Structure formats: C-alpha cells, structure tokens
Amino acid sequence: MENIRGYTNVLGEKIMKKIIILILFLLGFSSGIFAISEIEELLIKEATNPELKKIAKEYLIKKAKDHKDLAEKYKNLSNLSKGGKAISSIEEHNKYKKLAEHCEKEASIYEREANNL
Predict the structure, then answer these.
(1) C-beta neighbour count of 92 within 10 angstroms
(2) pLDDT tens digits for 8-43?
(3) What pTM was computed for the model?
C-alpha cells in the first residue's frame, strides 16, 4: 500500500507544480495588460536629474505616439468593409474599435506620465 501512496504523492506533487506554474504565468500575463510596465515605472522613478527626466520624457512621448499611430490603424481597419456576412463584419468592426480605444487609453497614460516629469 505504501507504494501506491508514494505514487499518489508524486502525482499530487506534479499536479501542484503545474498549478503553481499556471498561476505564476497568469499573474505575469495579467500585469502586462497595463500600459506602464515595471521597467518603465523604474525609468520614471530613477529620473531624478533634468537630463534623465528629459530622456524619460522623450521615451514616454515616443511610446504615446506609437500607441496613437496604432489606434489610428485600428480605426481605419474598423471602417474597412471586406464584404461577407453582416454579423462577422460587425464583430470585426467592434474588435478593431475596441483595440483602437485601448491604444488611445494607453497613449493617454504615457502622455500623462510624460507631463508629470
């Protein structure tokens, strides 16, 4: 009976390790949803003198511009009509519209952080 229990414990440990890995992966993924990453927050925090603040501000402004450009591309894609079924066309329009809105929000976050420096 001990062999069976030992096997069960090994199996339980493997399952537990997989669950822990999955949780860590999901936590890492969920933190990537927000615009400002940990590295960018560190860049902002460490910008203590005027020269470093200028570099950080230029970087944040560039990121905001990139997000605005991407939002514009998504807006253009949302207005494109490829033909086909109406329902899939509406779904595609909504998908690109949401992506555009998300990029605009991220751009505004980068602009706000740049203006705070």
Answers:
(1) 16
(2) 555 566 665 666 666 655 555 444 455 688 888 888
(3) 0.63
26-37 per-residue burial string, b: 16 or more CB within 10 A, e: under 16: eeeeeeeeebbe
- What is the H or E stretch that residue 68 is in? helix 50-79
Cβ-based burial of 45 (10 A; exposed 0-12, middle 13-18, buried ≥19): exposed
Same domain for 81 and 46: yes
Provide the domain count of the chain: 2
Range of the domain at 4: 1-33
Are 22 and 56 part of one and the same domain? no
Instruction: Evaluate whether 100 touches 79 at the Cβ level (below 8 Å).
Output: no
